[in-house]
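Field reference: sequence -> structure
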Amino acid sequence: MKKLIYFVPSCEAIIFSAAHKRWAQNEAGKTVLDGEVVTADCDVGRDAGYLPAFSAALALGRQPHKNLYALYQGWMDTLLALKAARVTGVFRLATDADQAAARRDALCECARLDAEIARLRAAAAGEKQMPRQVELNMEVKRMEAALAAACARL
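Structure field:
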């Protein structure tokens, strides 16, 4: 089983991207992504508070050594810890696979709720009927409460 990780430097940031790969089942000699691609950009200005901890956590010696799959999963979990740190303000690695999975789910939920809140706000701003505006704003408040709960799980 092969793995995939890219480090792509840009002008202000370094973009990390990691994913598991496997041999394709239907086509000999081809590989496919196995699961989600995890990406994170590292901006020195924005991430200065937790950049030393993040850099240290990426070190090969700090990653799981069981097999290559576990090694790449460790790197992917470290990228997710950076994303979570941007929300919580604290860089902290997951202590086990269950905690890492819960963090991954919470990050997905936060992204989904952020998008939904933006959509609802845009709809409310364009709404002409006052009762519908109130309804949309109440829905924004409910989504913001759900977002706060998802962020608390990080």
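Note: The helical segments are 51-58, 68-88, 97-126, 130-152.
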